[in-house]
Design brief:
CATH class of the domain at 61-270: Alpha Beta
Protein name: Betaine lipid synthase
Strand content: 15-25%
Helix content: 40-55%
Oligomer: single chain
Number of strands: 14
CATH superfamily of the domain at 61-270: Vaccinia Virus protein VP39
Shape: elongated
CATH architecture of the domain at 61-270: 3-Layer(aba) Sandwich
Pfam families: DUF3419, Methyltransf_23
Strand order of the largest sheet: 3-2-1-4-5-7-6
Organism: Edaphochlamys debaryana
Radius of gyration: 30 Å
Keywords: Membrane, Transmembrane, Transmembrane helix
InterPro entries: DUF3419, SAM-dependent_MTases_sf
Length: about 675
Amino acid sequence: MGAGGDGRPVAGYKKNTTLEKFKNLGSVKDDLTVLRHMWFGSKKGDDHAARLESFYGPQATAYDAFRSRFLWGRKPMLAACAARLAERSNLIWVDLGGGTGENVDMMQQYMDLSKFKAIYVVDLCHSLCEVAKRKAKAKGWKNVHCIEADACQFAPPEGTATLVTFSYSLTMIPPFHSVVDQAVSYLSQDGLLGVADFFVSGKYDLPMRQMGWARRFFWRSVFDIDNIDIGPERRAYLEQKLERVWEHNSQGSIPYVPWLRAPYYVWIGRHPSVGHALHDEKVERPPLFPPTFLYTQSWEDPEPDMEVMEINPNDTVLTLTSGGCNALNLLVQGAGHVVSVDCNPAQSALLELKKVAIQNLEFEDVWQMFGEGVHPRIDELFEKKLAPFLTQTSHDFWSKRLWYFQHGLYYQGGMGKLCWVLQCLAVFLGLGKTVKRIANAPTLEEQRRLWDSNMLIHFVKHGPKLLVYVFVKFVSLVLFNKAVLWFGGGVPGKQYALIKADGIPIENYIARTMDGVAENSHVRKHNYFYYNCLTGKFLRDNCPTYLREQAFAQLKSGAVERLTVATNFFMEELKARTYTKVILMDHVDWLDVPVAQDLAECLAKQVAPGGIVIWRSASLSPPYAEQIKKAGFDVRCISRADQGYMDKVNMYSSFYVARRKGKKD
């Protein structure tokens, strides 16, 4: 760029560079003007309008550029509102404290302005209103009306508004009770009120808003110098008048001020509805958990589950989340309500993203995200269609990890990294092409041939015993030690001990798993678990149920609404309601004997008579099976690994089902 085909500078290139320098200097000059009036400007006047004019008047023309790098909550607020109004038209929007009309310009990124019958930009500062009027004229906004008025007294001529917004203005309106009351008075019954602003929490506030006393004191004092009150009272009053639909709390950088990040929030509300409840708490990651998920997909075959679960529309099912695929499968199978719980908030964030994607994206976008594991437009989709519906915990998680969908989702997390390392190791050992051939073998017979004829497998099965022993022990030490098994495969110490108690060396356990799959399950056609591990993606005809187009349509048409994603400890969620079906996965393997006893007693109380509980174990005869039996269940073992190949995952030693004694209601 900037040179001709012969290497000489293109004519005008130097001139353009000089112009860019002048533009940058002009930008810095404008920023300094704003900063001078923010830090040293006077705020004189007999009333609020005069004080606003004395403060904003001198910086009005430089206002937008500086604020775009300071007011980080504006875009998320507009995106959240637009996402909820996207299917509607003939809307009325009132932007209170709208200043220069920049919000209107930003809204064009999220929805067509022609959907608004009228847009009212209301502000008490004369200089800012003049900038807004010039902007509206220059951009040809025929439906935009710039009104110089007191927001506490303004009402749209139509009498109602579909959307009312306060963009960093509510903290600057002293009589905030009056302006909120006025806005609510003309907000339509199906309308939204959006707020983006700076804040400090109350001393006793929601966990997702909470901050320490030093931050509360510092930021409130700093903003108070400019007569901006960022205390919690305004949001508390909003929640007294309206119900909260969505909110997000975060912090953003300040131009020319290193290290400090100002706290801000986005809040969307509406008129109260019957039975409304919104809980989005700050959830702490348990000790020793990595800062991401362990599993990118559910690591249990749902087909054997469905053969014994008797899923029906009257079911309330509790399951561990894992990758979330099996929770979605339960809904496709017709479960009335599915509660998916995990104590790792990252696993909840993964399932919540899948749920929100199903609700708000088309099938091809969902396929690219979770079928291919990559999406070229993930940033745009996240900002406009996903982020506006995520809880704060999930929003915070994914906003920092969208690159997962650029580098490959299924190479992330503990299990994903382990798969990536094993693929790299295979390439290093000269087995890269063999792995690809096994993954894409056209028949099971060809897959078996490739597996058995592979030099590494052949060596392990038929090589000199001493060399094989040394090699296997070395691989076990490097790849199957406790740290790798925990962070890469989610196998904790207690589960590792169960395997050893059966007298099976861990390397034999892994070999049994892999050999059983290779010999009995056609990976390319029927085993999406291992196809994903070998290739980092799924295939349209070999994928979890929710990624099949017909199942996706079923979920999108309403079934996914019956999913509750909970970040909690399993026992606490079990106590929350009565269930007809419970899927323990291998959870009880992780527990001490006294805790397993408590769980068995809790199952007896919370599972309805006739209800079904299933679990898998790394043990051939898990000791807690007897505890569950004594608690009032008929327990039977469905399959064991020492009896042969179990299922497509084939990584557990036993599969159990238990039915709660007693008659159904």
